[in-house]
Design brief:
Blueprint (H helix, E strand, L loop, with lengths): L10 H6 L8 H9 L3 H11 L6 H13 L3 H13 L21 H11 L6 E6 L7 E6 L5 E6 L5 E5 L5 E5 L8 E7 L5 E7 L9 E7 L5 E7 L8 E6 L4 E6 L4 E6 L4 E6 L8 E3 L5 E6 L2 E6 L4 E4 L1 E2 L8 E6 L3 E7 L5 E8 L5 E9 L11 E4 L2 E5 L23 E6 L2
Parallel strand pairs: 18-22
Antiparallel strand pairs: 1-25, 2-3, 3-4, 4-5, 6-7, 7-8, 8-9, 10-11, 11-12, 12-13, 14-15, 15-16, 16-17, 19-20, 20-21, 21-22, 23-24, 24-25
Helix pairs in contact: 2-3, 3-4, 4-5, 5-6
Length: 414
């Protein structure tokens, strides 16, 4: 789930690194937006020692250019081009002063090459309700039933593939449901497990894991945390065959294990900055976690955490949905410049290094904040247009009449 408010919390990251002060990311973004270039550069210099997030580097490159610091701007753009970013630098008026520099043309050409169109997706189906604002998607193993969770309406829609019938599996707020985020169907295809969280009023920071019986829509169980010890946002989860769930808590910066039999929640790793997508390898011994600063690997035999390393140029930021498939990771990723893509990161035999990167789908005209997906066989189904930015913190929708029916796309992985 992308944050409803674009405020990225760097504090947990800095605490892990032993820092006592927090660079001012909101102030940096405000200075960049308001064209206060000296402030942008000053605040940006404080940020980059802690994170080389592409969006920060790109905004800083713009500010350097506008402040007539051309070499610094070019160095940052070269780094971003090396990482495979697809920015349209030739169309950016804040970089226009660089066009007379001989070094700019080859950098711009590399951005253009990075942004070449790759279209492998086909339309799978649409949902009927344009105001659903779906974030999570799950499916039965045979791909005959798909489940879409609603942020705006706090419910789950059940879509049957053979006849296109759509109905509510869980109605608005039933069982105390809040916003519906990540979801998975159990291996036996009997239960839908989902993350739910509230960002409203006195329950802001409440979160829970809900189990729903697929045959009846009845509540199997729910496990919740309140906000008294701090806010929570259960974001995405994976299931295992031994009655365990693992899930991310974006606001607490933790990854939890939930033992279904006892209902015991245990934090197995912490210090993440807005942990989001989560995937597990086939042997259930390793978790991969996408957070603000990249992808991290948790060894479940001892709960140790380490960054996932890439042996090839790429960027690992701004990932929402993350999935394990045949010793690779499938990610739904935003470059930070509204250039969403579906990308495959191939892993080495030990699962510790990325050895190859393949873009499966580059930015598509149908994309309006794609969020999450589900693998069915060798097909990847994903939400192409969540329209998340139309949802306001109070639950209202902006420009509701112009919203489009949610589109689910299918992408062949093999």
């Amino acid at each position: 789930m992308k944050p409803l408010l674009i405020i990225l919390l760097l504090t947990p990251l800095l605490q892990v690194m032993g820092q006592t002060s927090t660079p001012d990311y909101p102030g940096f973004m405000q200075a960049a937006t308001e064209n206060k270039y000296a402030d942008c550069i000053r605040l940006g210099r404080d940020l980059v020692p802690y994170t080389r997030h592409p969006n920060i580097l790109y905004k800083l490159a713009e500010c350097y250019c506008q402040a007539d610091s051309m070499q610094q701007s070019l160095r940052l753009l070269e780094e971003l081009a090396d990482k495979g970013l697809p920015y349209r630098v030739n169309e950016n008026p804040k970089l226009a002063m660089l066009t007379s520099r001989s070094a700019f043309a080859p950098i711009a050409a590399r951005f253009t090459a990075n942004g070449k169109d790759i279209h492998r997706s086909a339309d799978a189906f649409r949902l009927n309700d344009a105001q659903l604002i779906p974030e999570g998607i799950a499916a039965t193993g045979d791909g005959q039933r798909f489940f879409l969770g609603s942020l705006a309406q706090s419910k789950v829609v059940d879509h049957t593939m053979n006849n296109g019938q759509q109905k509510d599996l869980v109605s608005n707020g039933q069982y105390g449901l809040w916003m519906v985020v990540g979801m998975k169907v159990s291996a036996d295809n009997k239960t839908l497990w989902l993350c739910s969280a509230s960002e409203r009023d006195s329950s802001n920071g409440y979160a829970g894991i809900f189990g729903i019986e697929l045959a009846t829509g009845r509540l199997v169980n729910k496990y919740t945390l309140d906000n008294k010890a701090g806010p929570h946002l259960f974001n995405d989860l994976v299931t295992t065959g031994d009655s365990l769930l693992y899930y991310t808590d974006s606001k607490a910066g933790n990854v939890y294990k939930l033992q279904l039999a006892s209902g015991r929640m245990t934090a197995i790793a912490n210090g993440f900055t807005y942990p989001n997508g989560i995937a597990r390898n086939d042997s259930s011994t390793v978790l991969y976690i996408a957070d603000f600063n990249g992808i991290k690997r948790i060894d479940l035999t001892n709960n140790t955490t380490e960054p996932l390393d890439s042996q090839v140029p790429t960027f690992l930021h701004q990932i929402d949905g993350l999935y394990y498939y045949n010793n690779s990771l499938i990610a739904i990723q935003d470059s930070g410049n509204n250039d969403d893509r579906i990308v495959r990161f191939y892993l080495d035999a030990a699962g510790r290094h990325i050895i190859r990167v393949e873009v499966l789908q580059s930015y598509h005209p149908d994309f309006i904040l794609p969020t999450t997906g589900v693998i069915v066989g060798n097909d990847f189904y994903y939400i192409a247009n969540s329209q998340l930015r139309n949802l306001q913190p109070d639950g209202s929708l902006t420009n509701a009449a112009t919203l489009k029916r949610p589109l689910i796309k299918r992408l062949r992985l093999e």
